[in-house]
């Protein structure tokens, strides 16, 4: 983030949290997301640095997640990202497959992101651009993604 | 030049067939044989002939659907209906391949973190696209956007775009390409002397991501 979450600079972003979260939860293919505290404008609490905002969710397939990110009201918010977030030189989103019913932890997500950063895209940690299909029967697993890991330099990452 | 693409595109040479194709495409939904025949002003059998030729060539896709809500005996067989196929065909004489270069450049912009500059360049390019004395609909049609009008949720008129002229690139680099496209459209508005903020992102699957509020552009 360019500024603390409750600063005037971030007000536009904070105002979009509730409508966008509702949009995600109503989107086809949405399975689960990690919620933060303090009501509808809550964001995930974590120990990975103050300027880092985390989105962490489970989706049925690549295409349902892609449609939500790029073919819904989410795109217009994403397009304004530079108003609120600094550019990250390293990858800040990662996806991987999980068995149905598994609820992933944030530590798991950070470990996958670390893998993507050190080893590049692999079947265990990948991106839309270098996508890997589900292991075994394609389309049966859940795609999971951590998005919005956009810290101010994010030295802890 | 890909000779298969040339064969596909060449079947649109027949003026009736082209009119049938353009009618189906302009509807953005399944179109039946009777409807296409009436719209183009030809006999049903001739419309059906051209529709099936277009399916054979891969430009349209066919399916079967009941066109009425009636069920059971007497409701008849489902009717054959047509809509645009997803594929795209390019013909250039002599052969040119701007798409491959555009994909490489898009990747380079991503790697360099140059998306802001790319958006600014798109805005400037948009301004230059708007010709003197043209209206927004004319500019959009000429660039292949296929504009159509729709009532927005608040009752205000919208101009939506049925076709994304940058489809392949938008699938690979959605954020970069859709953001550039928005700036291109805002540049067009500026070039026409209209309010650039009338264009915004409101994506729908299978269409262009930009929408215009009509109040600001008329």
UniProtKB/TrEMBL annotation, chain B:
Listed CDD domains: HTH_ARSR
InterPro entries named among the record's database cross-references: ArsR-like_HTH, WH-like_DNA-bd_sf, WH_DNA-bd_sf
Highest taxon above the source species: Bacteria
UniProt-recorded name of the protein: Putative ArsR family transcriptional regulator
Species name: Streptosporangium becharense
């Amino acid at each position: 983030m360019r500024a603390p979450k409750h600063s005037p600079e971030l007000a536009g972003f904070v105002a979009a949290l509730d409508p966008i979260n509702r949009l995600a939860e109503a989107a086809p293919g949405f399975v689960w997301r990690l919620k933060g505290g303090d009501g509808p404008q809550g964001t995930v609490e974590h120990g990975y640095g103050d300027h880092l905002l985390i989105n962490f969710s489970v989706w049925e397939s690549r295409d349902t997640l892609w449609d939500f990110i790029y073919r819904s009201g989410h795109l217009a918010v994403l397009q304004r990202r530079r108003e609120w977030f600094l550019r990250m030189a390293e990858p800040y989103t990662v996806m991987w497959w999980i068995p149905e019913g598994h609820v992933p932890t944030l530590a798991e997500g950070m470990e996958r992101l670390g893998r993507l950063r050190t080893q590049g895209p692999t079947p265990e940690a990948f991106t839309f651009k270098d996508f890997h299909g589900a292991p075994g029967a394609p389309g049966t697993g859940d795609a999971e993604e951590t998005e919005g890991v956009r810290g101010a330099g994010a030295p802890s990452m | 030049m890909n000779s298969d693409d040339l064969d596909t595109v060449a079947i649109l040479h027949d003026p009736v067939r082209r009119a049938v194709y353009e009618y189906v495409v302009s509807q953005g939904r399944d179109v039946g044989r009777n409807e296409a025949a009436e719209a183009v002003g030809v006999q049903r059998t001739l419309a059906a002939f051209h529709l099936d030729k277009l399916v054979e060539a891969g430009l349209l896709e066919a399916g079967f659907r009941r066109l009425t809500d009636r069920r059971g005996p007497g409701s008849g067989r489902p009717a054959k209906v047509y809509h645009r196929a997803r594929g795209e065909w390019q013909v250039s004489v002599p052969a040119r391949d701007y798409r491959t270069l555009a994909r490489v450049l898009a990747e380079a912009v991503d790697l360099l973190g140059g998306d802001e500059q790319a958006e600014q360049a798109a805005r400037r390019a948009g301004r230059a696209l708007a010709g003197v004395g043209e209206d927004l609909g004319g500019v959009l049609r000429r660039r292949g956007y296929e504009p159509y009008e729709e009532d927005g949720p608040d009752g205000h008129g919208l101009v939506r775009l049925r076709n994304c002229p940058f489809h392949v690139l938008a699938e690979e680099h959605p954020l970069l390409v859709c953001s550039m496209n928005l700036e291109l459209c805002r540049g067009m508005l500026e070039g026409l002397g209209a309010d650039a903020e009338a264009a915004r992102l409101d994506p729908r699957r299978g269409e262009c991501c930009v929408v215009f509020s009509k109040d600001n552009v008329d």
